[in-house]
Amino acid sequence: MDPDETLFLAHVSSSLVHWSTRTPNAPAVNGPAVDGAIRVYHDQSAATWCDLVAQVGSLNEPKIRSTHSAAACEELENLPRGIINPSGRRKICWDAFVCCCVVYLTMTMPYSMGFNAEASCHILGGLHLSDKPWRACIRFGIDFVVDLSFLLDMFFSCFTAYQTPTGALVGDPWKIGAHYLIQWHGFPVDFISTLLPYILRFCNIKATLTKITKFVRVIRLSKLFKLTRLMRLRSKKNNPTEEPSLLFQPGFVSAVRMLLTLFVIAHMLCCVWYWLVVLQHQRGDPKRVRHWVNANSLPLKTTRYKYRVALYWAFTTMTTVGYGDIAIVNNTERLVAMFAMIVGGACFGYIIGGVTSILENLDLSSKTHNEKMDAVEEYLYDRQYPPVLAAQIKRHFNNIFTTDGIFDMQDILEVLPATTANDLVYTCYNQLVYNTSFFQGAHCEFIVAVAPNLLPCNANDGEFLFFEGSVGTHLFVIGSGVVSILLTALDVNSVGHYDLTRLTTLSGELSGDASDNIRIPSPVGFCCGTFSAGQILGDVAILLTLINPFSAYVQHKAILYSIKKEVLLGALTGHDPFRTDLMQVASEAHKQICNRRSRLNGSPSTMMGGANIEKNEESPFVATSGYVNAHRGFGSNSNNAAVLEISSLDFCCQHWIIHPELPAKVTWDALICFFIIYSIVAITYTICFEIIERPCSPPTNIWMGMNLCIDVCFGLDMILSFQTAYFDKSQTLVFSRKLIIRKYTSGWLPIDLVSTVPFDKLANCVFKRRNAGFRAIKLFRAMRLVRLAKIQQKLKLGELAEHVEDNLGINPSILKLLKPLIVMGAVAHALTCIFFRASRRMRQSKKRPTQYLTTMYWAFATMTTVGYGDEKPSLNSASSLIVTIVSQVLGTMIFAYVIGILVSIVTNLDQAKRQLQAEKSYLSDFLCEIHSISPTSELLLRVRRNHHHFLLISGVFDERRIVDLFPPHMQTVSTVYVHRAVLPYLPLFSTIEKKYMGAVAIILRSLRPASYSSGQIINSARISARELHFIVKGSVNVLYTTCASKCATDTISDEMYGPQTFFGDAMILTPTEKRVRLKIRIVCSSRSCHCFVFCKSDYNTLRDAYSLVAQAIDEQLDPSYIKRWIR
């Protein structure tokens, strides 16, 4: 080590030792010596660093510029004179022109080699190797211009700056030349593909001229390596962060690239396939040589025809269809065919992978949305939620993913600096922050912590957000709409009378198992105010009282944002002044509520009971939705009546406007959609199969009668559209007749006119002779295909599938199977009509239905790549070959799409079972890695048993994370419904729920299922677990140790606990900071014991957020167990 560095480290380390062990007698630190050592070390290190940088040329090479700096555009202009900017507009245009030349060579070079159609023009000897001299001269001229362009490109490449892997731009001419010579795709490829063919061609070697000519043709194929220019051009973008246009979207570009790649490979295989015929001709008499051209009777056909047949064979092989109509007659062709099969298999896999990748990356947002919704649907199906509640939860998640997006902003904010995170949050939540009084005066750090955690939810008219006496768990921010508050005439403590038995009864009602004679009482309440957009709701319960002093229901459809109490309190930490202001506002609101309650208790109208309200016919009722049908009505003296959500039928009778959700209107739209699909199939069939009705004649068969009825229904639907209300972007129902007419005339009316008015029948009456206006009739009839766009207006397959899934309880994956089947049927019908139109050889021998089924059979055989070969295109029909090639590529892509969906469906057919198996496999692999435990050990059996029980009770999904995203007013009912089977075994919670409504849901989320086997020790002095156990099944024994028995009185003996009991009071009541040592041992006495465990850490968390609930738990525990169980 350097002496100065040693001195520096010694001084510093010695000073550090003195600082860490400073005593009054410690020697003083030599300050000047330390400063001198630092200065010498810094100077020498800086000099060494400068020398190192100078050696790599960074200091002495001003021509290297960083493209990632802010002044990158200015630095590019400072390149040395004569050096070309690789990102300049002119250079990009030149590279695009060179790429066009490369594409031209890609198509012409294999064709020239394979079909022996080399275009050459001898200046002195005339034309060579061409049947048509002018075509040969044109091709030779184009090839010469292309080679000249490549020669110029070689010259330009010697003076074009290049970028290093680190992004630095090199402009030194010597380094540019060396870089161009060294690159494998630079000078070597350009020289071999551009200069070497001309050098060999003009060599004066007469004996080997023929061999040199053939060798030159092979050498010219090296020009295909210039395809790397396409990749180089693709990487040049002036602004990488710019949003690409529609034509340059990743999905569209990937699809075009895949199709071009397939065509290039097929073109090369086609040329190689015919090149075998050329080789056979060069070896002997063309008429006696055995090859596929002679075997298929094609020797007298033109070159263009043979190319088309060879291309058809290439695509048939690549798509693995293989009709077998092209005969293979020699060994060379068999070898090439086997190679083509390998290439075809690779292409088939490439198509499947490409289509899957395109579908996955085509719309990442939609893909992520579908995955998250699938997870929610699988969870609801696994937990067997009732249809009504499941439909509400799905609508809520759709609203979340639509309003708040499907990406987690917290993950993005964690990697951003504070200034960028603040700007992003303020940009995303601009209107909410500036229109909400809650955020006025708040620090930006608090806004950044709270705003991304606001969960959006929609609430319909009459829907209760929370009830008086329930535990406040969320703070609501009203985005739009009106929320009314409801006070009862009774005291707040007497409102929370809904015990756990009634909640369990309600769960049975949701599942259809409850008796009809049990009802939840409905106390009378008065509407005492409203909250509108920009105000907050629930702050009193969150900050002051824990329980809600009033009920809140939606008066007008509202958009709300909620945040959990725990998150809000955590965000308020460190913002004491703001928290003080919030508590002051909440205290004032609480005083107003207390004053209003005092006036209500003193009013004689508060003495009305529920029966009196039912008898009063003029008393308005509130339509509640949720898990409690409480607070049914207002008193007759209420000044602010609730706004009710009238039914769609009453809406129609009141306004004479059709409601879009009227059941009859929904049925009518479904019928119109069926007619649309039928008419599309019928129109394509009649056009392609040339079926024309008699001009100006009434219907003569069922076919014509159905078409006439469908046209009448479409006309009637146009009339109804002028009388149908609609929902705007804010989901507000618009029933103004002027707005309805304006929207319809500016939107769907032109499409409905084109697709509904029978222009084909009118044209048929004008052109009474069939041949006179046959094409015009087909054109008018094709206009009716616009009906397909009406499906977007009428049909909502997603909502229909959700409705069927919710009401029938079908696995979501089964419904997804219908989509690929419908797509395959539609594509097969289209290919059937197009192929029949292109191929006319079956029309005279068979009837129309037989022709249709036969062609449909061919379409499915092509799409599924089966290709039996009994139905195949005619080699003499160019249109049928082209349609077959397109059908093979399109059918293979559709088949790949179907395979991808089927794989996804099979993988997720029973996601819960698959997830359970994966969890068990993970546990098995984990236990196998523990070599210190025997495979037959009892510990492994206990771990497996408890793990299986945990997954069986809690499920394989992250239930807590999913339920936290539920609307706050749905979390309680969903939690109670999931635990409906075990709630009767937890009587402690019934007592707490009587006092604090909603507390049971808070406690249940903190419980953890556990399973014990016979003789297993649950707790002891060695374990001292801080847990409270609730027994659901089985029993346990509490055994006092010998030492404890001697000290115990006669009244203390061994204890036994069974179902509906709990034990572990002392472990919860003992303070956390106190060390616990038990003097008892708890053992499972039954064959198995199933419990729910409540840990001390969860209890502490509950106490911090909901102190009154924790106090209620303390009141149910026996403190005498502290002395009896703990030493």
Automatic annotation (TrEMBL):
<dbReference type="InterPro" id="IPR014710">
    <property type="entry name" value="RmlC-like_jellyroll"/>
</dbReference>
<dbReference type="Pfam" id="PF00520">
    <property type="entry name" value="Ion_trans"/>
</dbReference>
<feature type="transmembrane region" description="Helical">
    <location>
        <begin position="335"/>
        <end position="359"/>
    </location>
</feature>
<keyword id="KW-0472">Membrane</keyword>
<feature type="domain" description="Cyclic nucleotide-binding">
    <location>
        <begin position="1003"/>
        <end position="1075"/>
    </location>
</feature>
<feature type="domain" description="Cyclic nucleotide-binding">
    <location>
        <begin position="438"/>
        <end position="486"/>
    </location>
</feature>
<feature type="transmembrane region" description="Helical">
    <location>
        <begin position="817"/>
        <end position="838"/>
    </location>
</feature>
<keyword id="KW-0407">Ion channel</keyword>
<feature type="transmembrane region" description="Helical">
    <location>
        <begin position="881"/>
        <end position="906"/>
    </location>
</feature>
<feature type="transmembrane region" description="Helical">
    <location>
        <begin position="309"/>
        <end position="329"/>
    </location>
</feature>
<protein>
    <recommendedName>
        <fullName>Cyclic nucleotide-binding domain-containing protein</fullName>
    </recommendedName>
</protein>
<dbReference type="GO" id="GO:0005249">
    <property type="term" value="F:voltage-gated potassium channel activity"/>
</dbReference>
<keyword id="KW-0406">Ion transport</keyword>
<dbReference type="InterPro" id="IPR018490">
    <property type="entry name" value="cNMP-bd_dom_sf"/>
</dbReference>
<feature type="transmembrane region" description="Helical">
    <location>
        <begin position="666"/>
        <end position="687"/>
    </location>
</feature>
<dbReference type="InterPro" id="IPR005821">
    <property type="entry name" value="Ion_trans_dom"/>
</dbReference>
<feature type="transmembrane region" description="Helical">
    <location>
        <begin position="850"/>
        <end position="869"/>
    </location>
</feature>
<dbReference type="InterPro" id="IPR000595">
    <property type="entry name" value="cNMP-bd_dom"/>
</dbReference>
<keyword id="KW-0812">Transmembrane</keyword>
<keyword id="KW-1133">Transmembrane helix</keyword>
<feature type="transmembrane region" description="Helical">
    <location>
        <begin position="258"/>
        <end position="278"/>
    </location>
</feature>
<dbReference type="InterPro" id="IPR003938">
    <property type="entry name" value="K_chnl_volt-dep_EAG/ELK/ERG"/>
</dbReference>
<dbReference type="GO" id="GO:0016020">
    <property type="term" value="C:membrane"/>
</dbReference>
<keyword id="KW-0813">Transport</keyword>
